[in-house]
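ping. complex inputs:
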Amino acid sequence: MAEVSSDEILGKAYDSKLMKRLLAYVKPYKKYVVLAIVFNILVAGLGPLRPYLTKVAIDENIANSDYDGLIVISILLFGSLIFQASIQYLLTYYTQLMGQKIIYDLRKKLFSHVQRLSLKYFDKTPIGRIVTRVTNDVESLNELFSSGIVMVFSDVFIILWILIFMFVMSWDLSLVTLSVLPALIYGTFLFRKKVREAYRDVRKYLARLNSYMQEHITGMSIVQIFAKEKSEEDRFAKINSDHKDSNVSSIFYYAIFFPSVEILSSLAIALIVWYGGGEVIQKSMSIGVLFAFIQYTEMFFRPIRDLSEKYNIMQTAMASSERIFNILDNDTFVNNPENPRRFNKVEGKIEFQDVSFAYNPDEYVLKNINFTINPGEAVAIVGATGAGKTSIINILTRFYDVPKGKILVDGLNIAEVDKHELRKHISMVLQDVFLFSGTIKSNISLDNEDITEQMVIDAAKTVGAHKFISELPKGYDEQVMEKGATLSVGQKQLISFARALAYNPQILILDEATSSIDTETEILIQKAIEKLLVGRTSIVIAHRLSTVQNADKIIVMHKGEIREVGTHQELLTQKGIYYRLYQLQYKDQEIPKTA
Amino acid sequence: MTGLKSLNKYFFRYRKKLIAGIIFILLSNGFQVYVPLLLRDGIDSLKSTVDYDQILNYALLIMGASVLSGIFRFLIRQTIIVVSREIEFDIRQDFWTHIQRLPLRFFQNNSTGNVMAHATNDVGAVRMFVGPAVMYSIDTITKFIIIIFIISSISWELTVYAILPLPVLSYFIYRLSKKIHHKFTLIQEKFSELTTRAQENFSGIRIIKSYVREQSEIANFMKLSQDYLERNMDKVKIQAFFMPILFLITGLSIIIVIWLGGNKVIDGAITLGELTAFIVYIGLLIWPTIAFGWVTNIIQQASASMNRLSKIWNEKYEIEDSVDTDHTISNIKGSIEFKNVSFKYRPDLPNVLNNLNLKIEKGQTIAIIGHTGVGKTSFINLIPRLYDTTEGEILIDGKNVKEIPLHILRKNIGLVPQETFLFSDSLQNNILYGLEDKNKETVQKVARISRLDKDVESFPKGYETILGERGITLSGGQKQRTCLSRALAIDPSILILDDSFSAVDTNTEEEILTNLKEFMRGRTSIIISHRISTVKDADRIFVIDDGIISEEGTHEELVAKEGIYSEIHFRQLLEEELQELT
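pong. complex structure:
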């Protein structure tokens, strides 16, 4: 809930620096803005035109018994109505379209930026927070772009037009009528301010209510185990009633405001009747003017109320944009060298030279690592949890840069080559198989157009996944439900193998899953791994006996250091760390083999 | 609409305020409708009189009527809308009281988000009905009747023509808001797809980076964004009709009045003042007409929400006191017996526990060990009746647990669950959670036993430290020890530890176990663990495998047996050896 509450703190409504950056996104749509302003000027004028036409109808047509003139005025009125309605429609459509396009652009920029951020950023930032930035925060700018900026013009123009019409008809009656305006403006802004404060309370108590419920639904078993239902009920009642009270106090402001506006507009009407009426008696004013003025008083209220609402839109937009720009300003990248060196032909030789590595400064998880893997060799890395196995594969793909030592691939320091080119030669299979929602096919090819359907099928065949995939109702086009819930753990692993194989890399990194699966799938997986390793350099964080037995070399890690190196048999006879690990992790895997 | 009937009891509870509200609506409308009549007389008087005082008089009357109408309008909101908040409060409170008593089964079948949605969105939708919808319905209907009555007395013919467009407006508003609501749902769906995609992308960022798929991921995400944009524009296309149609139809009514009414004025059938009043009345009818279409939608949504709420209301408590409950039981001594107990979570699932028989004497400490997923947690959840057995019975002090009043049973069992759940509250309040009176000495005492006291010394605010996201995050081991303190604080006759030391280092565990031995004198305790070190001193150790007890005995007996227990024992010795290597 802390995330929500920190997101809800609203700051100032206007920040010129932020606004400038935001307006840069409007630039490509200048045409829309110009169009919208022109439309606005038109629409704004048409509304106030009608009371004027009514005045003409009363003073000239009705007063002179001109039936035909009345028809002409009615047609004019209707025409202006149709015209206004059409332009209003277009105006709404295009300003919304502009808003949508701008947030599309912004979202694209933000998402692309996040894609470039290094894993260090993802390690430190809760995923939910990044998601909120890309989704909700961008969304809350929509209102600013679609209605905020353009509609301010609209409201101002409407007010201007009304004033022009009024003053042209009668400047003194205008002044009398407008005498209620200061009270209306003051009242409206005061109301907004009060309501905003009241809503701040409402939001606060709502957040509290929600987090209470969220927490207690999650921990309902604790409530029940300790038989606390009764007292939790009382606590809930307290929070629930705070929420209610805050709402009731906001009702109060509404209850005051709406009737006050009605009274003010009646006051204006009373003033018109009193002052205008006097003028009419003196024959210095026509009844039609009186009539038009009564209608204008009704028209004034909306634009003023809307203008006061803009404050809220601005405030939310500023808060969101600040959070968005914070991400855009974040440059935790793994930088590419300016003039990257290129691989001629990747053979797959890997060398670690005195490599040390730490996620946090001075907490070294790898210390002075030295080893060489020759092209085509299969190397198994073994060790207890926390020995540093995963860190080795993290730095080999340049997810992180190493502070000490060098990693060479085919003789080139990986810090000096393009990280994307490097990664293209390395396929990685992680322990937790991650499937994206989409089809099986797209999960194997990862939507890479260079990988044909035939290559997908071939890869699946090689790893032995083809059989179960073709048995699915839609075969390779079967949808993988949320995180692949319809597939078994073993099947998901086979798909991730096929994925790695389809990319046909020179170097393969495999983090074997520990989870136990049924014997049948286990045999499939063992066979698949054997096939995966053929003809390429591979590093396997091994959890399978068959893998360690078949490896050309086993590297034994312990507490961030390499402690033993050798083949399965060599290491067993040493009776060192490997020997114990073998008994702990691999030994009982012999049973299903003999059985 | 049947769902909304169940709201009647709430309406009845606030009937006085509601009736007052309705009277206020009538009064307010009465005064409001009077204003145009004054306007009519004022304008008409201009033609015949030159009396300034009379005009001033009309102006003052207009003010007076508006002020009175305004005051009642204020009172309407202060009654009806306030009542809607009261009812919202009641419904939410009843909802909470209800779900607190639902069995754990319910919470496993319904996600937290789902239950939350009911408590917020559905209750909110119902409130919209109870407050604004009720207020506007009554307001609209009464205003409509009065105004139609007045204007038709001016000219019924003009009334018919002027009113004609209004039902069309109501209908359009109804249709439009329904369509917009539908489009909005579609947008929400796309939005959540977009969210899911972003979520997946960020979770799978390693795969994406290692296969260099950033560009195609961006393309995919932008494709969704494009769809989202299009769905939004779909809605805009309809929504943009809203204002223009409103203008057109209401404007049409007024034009009809000006044209036909103008003719009538020329003919002398009505006065100019009457025409003015007529136009103002049409203006007064516009908002109620819109509200009518809008309210219809609210009622439909509220009815759907109420149906969803009723579904939860109809959920059975399942585990509660019954006619068999013996209310004379006020205490528990602590002997436990499982008699032919079988258990499964759902009728269509296989048994988790199979015909289990087990006897624990008062004051004994027994331990349960076994691989993950063999039914250890299910076994202990049966004792405080978090679930009831499928077959067989559990006896405590020789009585079936179903006969013991539920709160007596649970108040006497200190359960430390596997998942360390703590509330975002102070450490002290968490420890004393199970107690009604907050006693600081108890906190000190149980924290000492759980070896939490040393850790707390290093917190600046000590036991007042707030936990959770607003405060500090405890380590896994500290959380487990806090949960243990919480269970000890209630002074239980039976203590159950479900793998409660997994994140505590072995030395500290050793100390806690020594402290517990003293505390547990005369109490029954059940300890589940994966670690031999935790269970080895128990009076009796049971190995559960596949829902049955496969081995049983003391540590020495079981080690000698060469079964699952000795296997686990051997591995743990190896692990320790590895850890000690430097």
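Chain B has three domains: 2-155+270-313, 319-412+494-576, 419-491.
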